[in-house]
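Model it.
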Amino acid sequence: MPGRPTTSAAPGPASVSDDALFDMRWERAVADLRAPLGRLYGRAIPIDALMDRLHALLARKWAERPVDLRVLDIRRDLDPHWFQSSRMAGYVFYVDRFAGTMRGVADRIPYLRDLGITYAHFMPCLMPRPGDSDGGYAVMDYTRIDPRLGTMAEFSEVCAEMRAAGISPCIDMVLNHTAREHDWAEKARAGDAYHQAFYRLYDAPEIPLEFEKTLLEVFPEQAPGNFTFDEAMGKWVWTTFNTFQWDLNWENPEVFLAIMETILTLANAGAEVLRLDAVAFMWKRMGTICQNEPEVHDILQAINQAASVAAPATIFKAEAIVGPDRLVPYLGAGRHTGKVCNLAYHNSLMVQFWSALATRETRMMTDVLARHFPDSFRGAQWATYIRCHDDIGWAITEEDAGRHGVTGPGHRRFLGDFYAGRFEGSFARGADFQVNEATGDSRTNGSFAALAGLEAALRTGDAEAIDRAVARIVLGHAIIAGFGGLPLVYMGDEIGLPNDTTFPDDPDLAGDGRWMQRPFMDWDLAGSAPTTDAPHGRIFRALRRTLSVRAACPELGGATASRVIDTGHGRLFCVARPGIDATTWLVANMSDEDQRLHRDALGLPDGPVPLDALTSLQPEIADDHIVIPALACLWLRAVHDGA
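Modeled.
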């Protein structure tokens, strides 16, 4: 009949060659590569020539990519939001302190799986300079694993075993600097002009002195100033962090190409996530603090989009510990929306957690997190955490503090005193780090257990103080798991490890107080944690339960909006997570007393108050008010009608 389709034989099996996949991915990315690279380097090199060189680099690294990772590339192209799943939960560790060696890490995969971990961050493990290496962030060879830990082949083997267990490996890539002993720096010191252009070098001190007028000091105690005179070259070198860490010259397109090759080498070794260290400092501009310059986001976009061609399974996490007003662009804003980093540390959530815990007051926390941050991002999310391997910088701005009746310097000083244990009534046992004598500001070191009061309580044996400290740790883990993003647990926090008091005995570590929060894993404690009623067992099982419940609640994934709710209650921090099939309300009591909140303040649906997903129990209700126990977090979950 006219118009009726004719039948034909079924088509044969279709296939797409690897070369065709590469070409399609290049076409997908080319516009988002050309634009930022043109802005960055269009004056230094013809953009067509740069794009040709980049295309050749990407094609070569794609040709080297192992078959199993090419399969992963296809899976991730089909599920680009994989890292935003509520099943994702991270664990962060130093290889030697966690398991001794790379092979030892493989032996601990069952422990990570039992805890509910699906993302494992190997803290700096690339070949560091000898001696003090800033915790491994002074890298002298990006293509080798620290020989004390193993080999790159062993790293690849462990990554493969982790992938088979459903765990995504993450590794650090330092973008701002290399070690003074890196091959590029050694060639520069030997007079090689090509490699001297890789760094920010000056023949005389006048320009460095002009820059210094507006620069800040990262380590004012151990490494004052931002420039170091190198005798071998007779030149001044930009050294933001330490004299042995030379800042790269990102105005040079050769640096971009060289770093891009390194990133793809690590991706081909099995790293699924690259933590991009010190990104805020990469671009320098006279008259500024040389942090968070617009060009940084062009660089990050170019890196992300280039990787999407040759290693599309790879995502990027920005290490940008900056103020609230500067943080959002690292997850994409304006013309960079959805094109830069996939993860960024939510340091404001961390700071506000500790601030509210010390003051038992949440109004500033609610205000700051609602005021400065969007509910969600496109193709990106937060990495949420309570503390990390680094110190805590008290990023409380004058404006935010002023809205709540305190001054920025005064509140930052209070937090420093409180968490160093100097403030009367403090439960914490942290320590100052990098005190600025001019401003009175200081940062704070300490493990989660030490800052939350468990270390001090265990010393005294005060059962009530121990219970409160355990509750603070459980509360913190529930907040970072429920707030929105990928929660990161730092090694030992799941069993409440105290500060390490032995690090001063090692001359390579003694000068850096941050080693106090990097203790060696206690496997005896970890072994008993699943069954004991001791504090470490209670912490472990609560976290395991929290991550298990989170995995079963899709609305707690990173793609769902995180809507901070101002309930007017100054002791509670509340967030709504409205998903397709269910909504979960996070209600956290930051005080030492039970609190009540009327259900209408949360906007709960009609009917019974939802169960607390963390306990599967109905919360206590008194006169239509929900009772939130002291230092507790409820996840009130309502399944939508018809879901």
